[in-house]
Amino acid sequence: MPERAKRRGGSALSSIQVMFAMILGLGLLLAINFSTRITESQPLQDEYEQIVNEIAGLESEQQDLIALRDYVRSDPYVEQWARDNGKMVRPNEVLIIPVPSGETVEPTPTPSFNVEVQTAPPTPEAWELWWALFFDQPVPNS
Prior knowledge:
It is built from four helices and no strands.
């Protein structure tokens, strides 16, 4: 027995120590591998968050555009546009356009209606029509 005690107390490694060293080495390799994966995934995570934020912004913009589309299709918008931009009025209303102070505006003249009765042009003779067709020009004045 004294020889065995010497072996154990000496520099020889026991199987438990070897197993512990292997487990420790394997754990160290796994920790290094795991940390490199975390480091490599960080830019991907940042890009993912950026894309998620962009999608949220686009969805918000889509909701705003849908609400605007629904408002533009409504009767109140049409009436507002007709009054503001179209300068239209309802029956029995008068359109008033304010003029800034300090500017003089000539009043709109009342249109005068000159009705001229036009008579039908004289009917050309047959030979004048043939002349115009053959020579592609009107009949010369004689």
